[in-house]
Amino acid sequence: MIIKEVIIENYLCYYGVKKFSLSNGLNIILGENGEGKTKFFEALEWLLNGDNNNLDHLVSKKALSEVEIDKSFRVRVEIVVEQYNEIKILSKQFTVKKKEENRCSVGNSILAGTEESSNGERNTVDGRELLEQIFPSQIRRYSMFKGEEELNIFDNADALINLINLFSEAKHYEKYESKGESLKVSAEKAVEQASRNNNKNQEQYNKLDFDIKSLEFRKHDKLTFLEVTNSNIEKTTKNIQEVEKYINNAEALDIINSRIKKIESEISKTEQLITENYTTSLFDEGWMLMNFETIHKEFADKVTNLSKERRTLQSEYDKQIGIKEGENRVKLSLLNDLVPLPIGTPSKAIMEEMIKEHICKVCNREAEEGSEALKFMNERLQQYLQSQSDDIPNEEIPEKLYKHNYINRLINLSTNQEDNLFKIRTINSEIEELFKFNQARKDDLVEFKHKLEKELIDRERIIGNSAIGSEKLSVVLKDYNSWQRDIKNLNIDLNGLQLEIDKISLQLKDLQEQKEKIDLTNVNNFLINTRNILRDIDTIFKDTKTRKFDEFISQLAEKSNQIFSRINIDAFTGTIDFRLIKTETRVRVKIQLLDENDFPFPENKSLETSKHISVLLAISELTKEVKAEKYPLIFDAPTSSFGESKMTEFLNLIYEAENQTIILIKDYIAKDENKNLYIKPEFEKVKRNKAFWVRLERPFDEKNLKTINTERIEL
Q1: pLDDT for res 414
Q2: Residue 233: which of 486, 604, 611, 584 has the closest Cα?
Q3: Is the pTM of this model over 0.85?
Q4: Does domain 136-198+523-630 have CATH number 3.30.70?
Q5: Which of 47, 219, 318, 354 could bridge across to 326 with cysteines, CB 3.0–4.6 Å?
Q6: Which residues pair with 302 in a beta bridge?
């Protein structure tokens, strides 16, 4: 879309009808402050974005003063545009009727549209629909800027996301992503319902489902707090940066801030290393067992004596019964009245291992195939297996001397405690080392805090020597130090929230895996496979959208940096970086300048302005490529921080961009010795397609609005 004409009639300082015929290129409108330059921008803004409130404030006082009482005239702003080789006219106007001197009534504003066919016929169309057609609202947001401050629309990280979603191919995948998510959710519900209908593991399944939903609710809360904390960090950081603009020695301040941040990080890390929860360690770390070894020895001796006594009694009992199995079992042990080993010693696994390897690992002798030793080991294993079996004929089952095997449990308990003795013996030294470690860290903290105090004093000194007025210094210093503390505390909160979220995520993953194991046993394969396929499809759609999103970011960064370098020829610029910030709840993009080491650095106003304009021009180019359509950029005083030389280079760059741009500036205008305005010869060096000079018609009464009329002079 190209704006061919702008017509302003009786709007504020524009008395009568003023027509600006514009070019499809660079259009420059020069005007000193207060001469009508900004009112041109506001007229377009009223047409394209304005409301219908306070219309009487928009009336030209000169027009009102010159019309007779009870006579009417109109206030109008109109644009004639060309789009797809068709002429379209958008007009906004209202009627003014003079009631008496200095008083009038106004009608409702009307937004009217007209389309002109190729044969010259004109048809009236709905104005609102035509406006959206020729200049969509989401495009206008990135096309009209008043002053340098409005250029920083991308300080709001969501603004760039909205733009990317508008122009990148990622938007084409939104419907697929939505459908993929819907199908996946339906499949998940089908699997869950089928699993619930199966009585097997139902109680466990319901508990898992309840726990998962509870954790998801907690995680959502934590993520909400995380977003709020991130937002507060961004706002506080911006406040700090605003204050730092007033600091004289910004470089020294930046260095000190870096040192302070590093020291605060060391303090935080050191504080986390100190562990003084000694009460918990008494139980969780087993410190209360430090004098347990003597108790264990007494316990082990009693278990050994009890075991030996039990085996002795069992041996005597077996002798008295004289059953065949008992005779075979104790034959060898009775030869010298020895107390036999327990039936389970060595264990079943050890006995099988020795038989398999043909070696006795008790006496470390070979037991060849067919040997008495191997035969004995096989018989010993069979005795153990029989002792564990209940399949003994009734007539062969003697009355047991010991009905339970509690002795073995005591032996196992004693053996297990024996394994822990080594750790118990180290508890004393562990406690001593922890006390020494904690004290060393406390000493480090004292040193770090001393260094921090010194750096804070130095920072206050730098701020104290700044250009801020003395009456504001105490307030600014108080706010600055308060914000620095806020940033520190907010970052601590942020880290804490992230740790909690990570912990909940791990718990959720574990519970969901348990739930899926139950699904695999309760649900038929068709449902499981269908769900898995739809999960993969959903992932593919999401990944594809993300990839297209990243591709657009890469294109935007490349084009922005090309333009940025051309605007700032022979000057340090750094690199425009588009930092993607992803969380589980939102995606944002942050724009910043990085130095050669990829570190952010303070931007002066000129560099900041050229950064924003570079991004906007890059977006304009991408709009043309992606949408096969282009839209004008309209700037009012966007480069007031530029010097005249840089301004000329900037305008020549815009000229070469071959995109319709309307720039309203006060540069190149000066006053002669008689205080008459004139355009400097340097303006001849500026390449442009069209240029206009707007200035108040002379003479005029600076205290009487009825004498004000802005002239339009085409250069």
Answers
A1: 74
A2: 486
A3: no
A4: no
A5: 318
A6: none
